[in-house]
Every structure is written in structure tokens, then in C-alpha cells.
Design a protein that fits this description.
Elements lengths: L1 E5 L10 H12 L2 H6 L3 E3 L1 H11 L8 H15 L4 E4 L5 H12 L3 E3 L9
Parallel strand pairs: 1-2, 1-3, 3-4
Helix pairs in contact: 3-4, 4-5
């Protein structure tokens, strides 16, 4: 399965770049285990951050950021088979889960729930 890993990125960081990196590290920490279970992991920031930079974003939340950050994950959900929602408060991740459920995609809340292939 192609699985979107959803969780906090900007939430709770007050836009501190170090805290945002730590959140991305937490998202990425489950990518390799997902791959080893036989799946393709995907994190929206892997695609969004380079596009945001190319669009000329100067800070999180500016117009270029808003144009790209959340729409990337929502567009990718059209290609995904499931979502893995990791712990932590996140409006963006909650929106991803809601959209995935509306699309009938499976939502997992722990790595252990995801079946191995």
C-alpha cells in the first residue's frame, strides 16, 4: 500500500524551525518500518517543502505556504491506500484523516496495526 504518514509538523512549534524539524523526524521515524512491512511510505512534507521553497515562501503560514502545504497531502490522498496517523495534536493531520475516511481509506493509529505484506 501507499501510506500517508500524518502527524504534527507545524503544530505546537510556534514556527520554530528546530521544533518543526523534530516533528518531521518523528514522522520519518515510521517511514522505514512501514517500508520494511512491504509498503511505500509517504509524508506530505517530502513533496510540499521543496515546492514551498520554489514558490518563494518566506515563513510558515505565508501565502505560498498555504497554497501548497495542505493541498499536497490532500491531492496525494487520491493516490494513497491508507493513512498512518501518528500521535500528537495536529489540525492538518486531523484533516488528512477526515478526508481519508470520507474517501473510504483505511486509517491506522499505530505501526503495529498496519499489516505486513
Amino acid at each position: 500500500m501507499l501510506i500517508l504518514i500524518a502527524g504534527p509538523y507545524r503544530s505546537g512549534t510556534n514556527d520554530d524551525p528546530q521544533l518543526m524539524k523534530e516533528n518531521l523526524d518523528k514522522l520519518e521515524a515510521v517511514a522505514l518500518p512501514l517500508f520494511r512491512k512491504g509498503h511505500i511510505p509517504f509524508i506530505g512534507e517530502w513533496m510540499a517543502l521543496p515546492l514551498i521553497k520554489l514558490a518563494g515562501s518566506k515563513q510558515p503560514g505565508d501565502a505560498a505556504w498555504e497554497e501548497i502545504q495542505y493541498p499536497v497531502a490532500h491531492r496525494m490522498l487520491e493516490k494513497c491506500d491508507a493513512v498512518l496517523r501518528i500521535a500528537g495534536a495536529s489540525k492538518g493531520a486531523d484533516a488528512d484523516v477526515k478526508k481519508a475516511q470520507e474517501m473510504g481509506l483505511k486509517v491506522y493509529y499505530s505501526l503495529e496495526e498496519v499489516p505486513s505484506v
